[in-house]
Specification:
With 145 residues, this protein is mainly α. It is built from 6 helices and no strands. The longest helix is centred in the last third of the chain and has 24 residues. It starts with 22 loop residues before the first helix and ends with a helix.
């Protein structure tokens, strides 16, 4: 009788998943996500219209209210979008100097993923799937791939 395959023992445990369906978890994470989002948008020089699109097309009123009063609870989609952008920001600042990292999103890019357009335009057009692709691309570059 053959033994069932199993993963080798390791001392590393995967990070627990955050339950975004839990209002308490979203409340805990939202204010810092909003502050980080607006700081990143300022550093990247993103127009408010484009920043709203990155958040999934939030209304003008909701956007400016968020800017004035970050103590609110985001829905799971908006929180996920902010998380991707924080990860992209972090990866860019690991890979490049601060000046280049902040300019990277607005510069046209010859990588076949972007097809000559700026990564910011790619993210706006592609939404969450595009954010995931860019995040994985940058993480792969960080890993030397």
């Amino acid at each position: 009788m053959a033994l069932a395959p199993h993963y080798p023992a390791t001392r590393y445990e995967p990070s627990p998943l955050v339950d975004l369906s839990s209002k308490a978890e979203r409340e805990r994470l939202s204010a810092s996500a909003i502050k980080a989002f607006f700081n990143i948008m300022q550093k990247w020089g993103v127009r408010d219209e484009d920043a709203r699109a990155l958040l999934g097309g939030v209304s003008n009123g909701q956007f400016y209210e968020m800017k004035k009063q970050p103590q609110r609870t985001l829905d799971a989609d908006t929180l996920t979008r902010a998380s991707y952008l924080v990860g992209i920001f972090k990866a860019l600042n690991i890979l490049y100097s601060e000046k280049l990292a902040d300019a990277w999103m607005q510069r046209s890019n010859t990588n076949r993923v972007f097809g000559g357009q700026a990564p910011l335009a790619y993210l706006i057009k592609g939404g969450l799937p595009a954010m995931d692709i860019v995040r994985r691309l940058l993480d792969a570059r960080r890993g030397g791939v």
